[in-house]
Write a structure and sequence with these properties.
heterodimer, A: 109 residues, mainly beta, Immunoglobulin-like, 5-stranded antiparallel beta sheet, B: 112 residues, 7-stranded mixed beta sheet, globular
């Protein structure tokens, strides 16, 4: 099956720092989403980005589908950015999400 | 508009018991999917339903079953609970395929 690899697995930042999270996937995809999982477990939608670049405030994302990777950029990080970030993809001709193992981000004041 | 709602939020069951988890999708969404997330891992796909028909099944035993109702809400049933079934169960809804999906807050199941 498809492999979805996220890096780094853990990241510690000082408040105000920038970071880049990476998601590599091993097959062609129809859908790619980035989520932030809050401490209570809910997956919060950050980006729906099967290809191209999007920005939302301090966050932006880029997916290069032909090279099978996506990047999530967090600028001027805040303590509220802490949590686990997941990349999830839907492979062509399937209807299910495959999730990576996540990047656990800890932003310190 | 209400998002995806799941009930109950927390549940404690004993080994061997049966459990039913419920999910109400976003209004207008016809696709519902279920995922299991054990501690420290990403969610794993269990089922997808679209227009009340099963459209996908993950690698889970037959103890797991689901259905979708005419109003597009869904139930996930797990029989003969095992300790290993303890997890966060997440429901996702979407308009259809190849579109953005939205997740509920999850049901945290503990089997003792």
């Amino acid at each position: 099956g498809i492999q979805v690899e996220q890096s780094p697995p853990d990241l510690i930042l000082q408040e105000g720092a920038n970071s880049t999270l990476r998601c590599n996937f091993s097959d062609s995809v129809n859908n790619l989403q980035w989520f932030h999982q809050n401490p209570w477990g809910q997956l919060i939608n950050l980006f729906y980005i099967p290809s191209g670049t999007k920005q939302n405030g301090r966050l932006s994302a880029t997916t290069v589908a032909t090279e099978r990777y996506s990047l999530l950029y967090i600028s001027s990080s805040q303590t509220t950015d802490s949590g686990v970030y997941f990349c999830a993809v839907v492979v062509v001709n399937t209807n299910k999400f495959y999730f990576g193992s996540g990047t656990k981000l800890n932003v310190k004041p | 508009d209400a998002g995806v709602t799941q009930s109950p939020t927390h549940l404690i069951k004993t080994r061997g018991q049966h459990v039913t988890l419920r999910c109400s999708p976003i209004s207008g969404h016809k696709s519902v999917s279920w995922y299991q997330q054990v501690l420290g891992q990403g969610p794993q796909f269990i089922f997808q339903y679209y227009e009340k028909e099963e459209r996908g099944r993950g690698n889970f035993p037959d103890r797991f079953s689901a259905r979708q109702f005419p109003n597009y809400s869904s139930e996930l049933n797990v029989n003969a609970l095992l300790l290993g079934d303890s997890a966060l169960y997440l429901c996702a809804s979407s308009l259809g395929f190849k579109v953005e999906a939205f997740f509920g807050q999850g049901t945290r199941l503990t089997v003792v």
